[in-house]
Structures are given as C-alpha cells and as structure tokens.
Amino acid sequence: MRHRSKKKQTSGAAARGEADAIRELESSALIAHIQSATENQKALLARELHDELGGMLVGAVMDLAWAEQHLTAPVAELRQKLVRARQTLSSAIDLKRRLIEDLRPTLLDNVGLFAALRWHVQAACSMASIACTISLPEEERRFLPHVPIALFRIVQEAFAVIIAQGHPAAAELRVTATPRELSFQFVSQRIVDDRAPQDELEPHALTAVRYRTNALGGRFAYDAHPAEGIRITATFPLEAMLAPA
C-alpha cells in the first residue's frame, strides 16, 4: 500500500510539473503573439506618419517659405507670423521623425540590427552623459522578420532600466555569437556617490526584458553588486531565430 501511495504521489507531481510546463509554454506563446501584433501596429502607424503626415508637413513648409520670400508689402507682423509658422512646422517634422524612430527604428530595415543597436546605445549614453562601450559581432545573420525588433526592444528596455535606476558611471553592451547561441550582456559600472546602492532595482523594473527574452526562447539572468554594478544577460538559441536559407 505504501509503495502504491508513493507511486501515486510521484505520478501526481509529474502531472503537475507537466501542467506547469504547458502553462509556461502557453504564456510564452501568448506574450509572443501580443508582442508581434503590437509591433505590426507600430510599423503600420510609422508608415502612415511618414507617408501622409510627413508629406503634408513638408508641403506646408515649402509653401510658407515661398510666401515669405515673395512678400513685397512692408507687413512686418505678417512676415513674423509666417516665419513662426514655418519654424513650428519644421519642429513638427522633427517630432514626426522621432516618433517614427520610437515606433519602428528605420535603421533596422535600412542597415540591420547591429547598426541600429549601436546607434541607440550611443544616443542613450550621450543623453545620460555616461561613457559607453559597444562590442558587436562582425557578421550579422539573417533573422526571422519578428526577431530584430524584439531584440532591439530588449536592449532598449534594459538600457533604460540601468540608466534610470542604476546611477551608472559607464555602460556597456556586449553581443557575442556562437554557432548555437546569441548572447546580449548589459553591464553598468557603479558611480561612487551618496545615492541609493546600485543593487536596489525595483522588482518589476526588468519584467518586460524577462518576458521578451522568454518569448524568444531565451534565458534571462540579472546580477548586481553595490561595489561593481549591474549585469544583465539574455541568451537566445540562434538557430530558432534565423530565417531559412
């Protein structure tokens, strides 16, 4: 009887473990689907902003510039308003460009993932006034369509966290590739001051990075030391992310 009871317990534990694994797979699939749908919507919005709004704004700027150059009457106030309108529309065009880059970085489509990552990390570090080190593989493989934007968002969100909450003196992005894995490592060196210790990240701060990593079948790791800094690692199975030859 005891032997049968132990068997039942073992069988029940195995069933629960299998159910948990299935739920985890379903959650990862759901997250991947939501992320894919969201990125598709963002890409569509970026295209509409570029083609429709961008064209109208550029046309308005050209018309206003022509009117400004051809005013013959000494109507100083009217000229001032025209100049101000042109400057405002120029600012709107710049805003449109920034929105497009936030929604869907054009560098991803034009020059590839690694170039887009280099541009983003350098820009983020420059805005935060911190030193920046970037190490990327020389060769970029051909990924499935949804992979580059997912990896870009992981880097974007990870750097946003360590810059906003880690008070770093310097930050580093290190991407390495083997025949089987692609690994992203984010490192921030601690700044020595009287602010909060660098290991006191909010528990939910890296949730999005963890979810995005899991959705791509990757492994996520986070480590922090008050005297050293923050280290975030996301490692992915490379073959599962590559487009067919």
Detailed description of the structure:
- Helix content is 61%, strand content 17%.
- It has a 5-stranded mixed sheet.
- The protein contains 7 helices and 5 strands; from the N terminus they run ααααβαββαββα.
- A hairpin with a 3-residue loop joins strand 2 (168-177) and strand 3.
- The termini are far apart.
- It has helices at residues 2-69, 76-103, 106-110, 113-128, 147-166, 207-215, 238-241, and strands at 131-135, 168-177, 181-190, 219-225, 229-237.
- With 245 residues, the chain is α+β, with helices and mostly antiparallel strands.
- It folds into 2 domains: 2-103; 112-241, Histidine kinase-like ATPase, C-terminal domain (Heat Shock Protein 90).
User: First CA to last CA: what distance?
Assistant: 58 Å
Our count of helices gives: 7
Computed over alpha carbons, the radius of gyration is 25 Å
What is the mean pLDDT? 80
CATH superfamily of the largest domain: Histidine kinase-like ATPase, C-terminal domain
Globular, elongated, flat, extended or rod-shaped: what is the shape? elongated
Topology as a string of helices (H) and strands (E): HHHHEHEEHEEH
Q: According to CATH, what is the class of the largest domain? A: Alpha Beta
The total tally of domains equals 2
The major β-sheet equals: 5 strands, mixed
- Total count of strands: 5
The strands making up the biggest β-sheet line up spatially as 1-2-3-5-4
At the third CATH level, what is the topology name of the largest domain? Heat Shock Protein 90
